[in-house]
Design goal:
The complex is a heterodimer. By secondary structure, chain A is mostly helical. In chain A, 81% of the residues lie in helices and 0% in strands. Chain A folds into three domains: 105 residues; 30 residues; 48 residues, no CATH class. In chain B, strands 1-2 form a two-stranded antiparallel sheet. Classes of the chains: A mainly alpha, B mainly alpha. Chains A and B meet through helix 1, helix 2, helix 3, helix 4 and helix 5 of A and helix 1, helix 2, helix 3, helix 4 and helix 5 of B.
Chain lengths: 185, 187
């Protein structure tokens, strides 16, 4: 991939295009990034799943992680910067315009009626990834316990989700290491 | 002071998000709505709705919008920068850790543990948008958030939105637009 240098601008442009046209967040971006990188011959088939798994297991915004890892592979740290700028700028500009416009019209009774209908639908849509992830990730009884504990701690006890993530990582790693130590004996 | 709080808040959000934008919502919510009170529940729900029908990552949308509400254009730039920064600071370490550990049982076990925890976090985000939950004098107090759920028709809309997306895979943008039209007609 170091033979012919990909220009920083074209890296920026590809990610800006994807950032401007994918609705629905990071997961919706994956197939587009994949297709675009292949079309440009920037990446081989066997490298792509690696970037996806890597981006999903790293903390942070999925789309930004994809941009960083792909850009870095193409042009090092400057490539990562160009790709990230591209992925972030379109939605930054669009939301800024909406925020500026919306703060002027929020108290308008017609807008308020529209949003009264929209808010419950938006809450219903948040439940979809929760149920999907629960079905995919809860194959064992203890997983349901983890789910219930995390939900209750945040919703009822106002525990910061940061602690939930930290405690889960530490607990899972401890159990895993203990299991391995027991198997070795 | 507000700049430092804004920066730290979104830096932490960027650092501790696992599993996509929806997982980030409960984190953003506890910081932005519950802890600092920068946005009301209704405003936060509006951003979530707007994010579902505008392009780009939901996290970036929330950071930009919250930053703007708190401190204008500079605030939105700072919040978005702070959100993205942790990924940049740690990505090289992540690549090395990943190459070293991704085939080990430890990596798989941690990921298997995180999945249900993140599902719980997303569920909590939805729950906090429905109810104000508190303990007063040791008593559990649950109160519906009237700005989001005014009467039974709101709950019906939520159930319909969930079912249409979950069972029939209808595009979220269409569902948000339909919700808006129904709201305009019935309220």
């Amino acid at each position: 991939m170091t033979g012919s240098k990909v220009s920083l601008f074209s890296i920026f442009a590809v990610f800006a295009k994807i950032g401007a046209f994918t609705i629905g967040g990071g997961y919706a971006m994956i197939p587009l990034i994949e297709a675009e990188m292949r079309r440009k011959n920037w990446i081989s088939e066997e490298n792509m799943p690696d970037i996806i798994v890597l981006a999903q297991s790293a903390p942070g915004i999925l789309a930004v992680n994809m941009a960083i890892f792909s850009g870095y592979r193409l042009r090092g740290i400057r490539g990562a910067l160009a790709a990230t700028l591209g992925a972030v700028l379109p939605s930054f500009a669009i939301i800024l315009a909406i925020a500026a416009l919306f703060s002027g019209i929020r108290d308008n009774p017609v807008v308020e009626r529209i949003f009264r209908g929209i808010r419950p639908v938006a809450v219903g849509l948040i439940l979809v990834p929760a149920v999907n992830l629960a079905r995919k990730g809860c194959k064992k009884w203890w997983a349901w316990l983890v789910l219930a504990a995390s939900l209750a701690a945040v919703a009822f006890l106002k525990v910061s989700p940061i602690y939930i993530i930290l405690v889960t990582i530490i607990a899972a790693a401890t159990v895993s290491i203990a299991k391995e130590a027991r198997e070795k004996r | 002071m507000i700049w430092l709080q804004l920066f730290c808040t979104f830096f932490l959000i960027g650092l501790f998000t696992f599993g996509g934008g929806a997982a980030m919502l409960s984190l953003i919510q506890t910081q932005v709505v519950t802890k600092f009170g920068w946005l009301t529940e209704a405003q936060f729900t509006d951003i979530v709705a707007i994010s579902q029908c505008t392009p780009g990552p939901i996290g970036v949308n929330c950071a930009t919008y919250t930053g703007y509400e708190v401190a204008g254009l500079a605030g939105s730039a700072l919040a978005t920068f702070a959100l993205v920064l942790p990924s940049f600071l740690i990505f090289y370490g992540i690549i090395r850790l990943y190459n070293k550990y991704h085939e080990t049982a430890l990596f798989g076990d941690v990921m298997n543990g995180l999945r249900p925890a993140v599902a719980g976090l997303i569920g909590a985000a939805a729950l906090i948008l429905m109810f104000r939950i508190s303990f007063e004098g040791g008593l559990l107090q649950i109160e519906t958030i009237k700005e989001n759920f005014r009467d039974w028709s709101s709950w019906a809309l939520m159930a319909a939105g969930f079912a249409a997306s979950f069972f029939f895979k209808i595009n979220p943008i269409l569902l948000i637009i339909a919700g808006g039209l129904i709201g305009l007609i019935i309220y």
